[in-house]
Write a structure and sequence with these properties.
Layout (H helix, E strand, L loop, with lengths): L11 E9 L5 H16 L3 H14 L3 E3 L2 E2 L2 E4 L6 E11 L9 E10 L3 H15 L2 H8 L4 H10 L4
Parallel strand pairs: 1-5, 3-6, 4-6
Antiparallel strand pairs: 2-3, 5-6
Helix pairs in contact: 1-2, 4-5
């Protein structure tokens, strides 16, 4: 990035927000999100899913309060890209607080850019730690509203 503070809209585009009524489990959810990110951001779907599953095997990316930020570093990714999913039915993510997850951001991060990767994770976790923002996301009527809540109406 250019040295300025990273914002969610630099990572998640309006076409990469999903409201998912129900999903079978964590693996099915991650596969669906990897597919969307591959379709909309040009990521390699099999490589992304494999890398995310490998990262999850090291420890859950469920950060608590119903939020998870699964992520992986890929060689062909130049800048952080992500997809946001709001789940109608929470999924067990083995989160640090043992609560199921219903707000998920899947990230593909540049393989060599440790600083950029940390900045992207920090940017999103800071936003998603806000209780009102999480509640508003869960009540979003559609994907456009969810995008606006996360990316447009920033007050942090």
């Amino acid at each position: 990035m250019d040295g300025s503070i990273m914002n969610p809209e630099q990572i998640i585009g309006p076409d990469r927000v999903l409201l998912i009524e129900k999903t079978a489990d964590k693996h099915a959810l991650l596969a669906a999100l990897a597919r969307r990110l591959a379709e909309r951001a040009g990521c390699d779907e099999p490589a992304l899913l494999a890398a995310v599953l490998k990262r999850e095997a090291l420890g859950s990316t469920g950060i608590g309060d119903g939020v998870a930020i699964p992520h992986a570093r890929l060689a062909n990714v130049e800048n952080p890209v992500g997809v946001l999913a709001i789940l109608g039915r929470p999924v067990d993510f083995q989160a640090i607080d043992d609560k199921p997850v219903d707000v998920v951001v899947l990230l593909a991060l540049p393989e060599g850019g440790a600083g950029t990767a940390l900045e992207a994770l920090s940017c999103l976790s800071r936003r998603l730690r806000q209780p009102k923002l999480r509640d508003d996301l869960r009540r979003a009527a559609n994907s456009g509203a969810a995008y606006d809540i996360l990316c447009v109406n920033q007050k942090s």
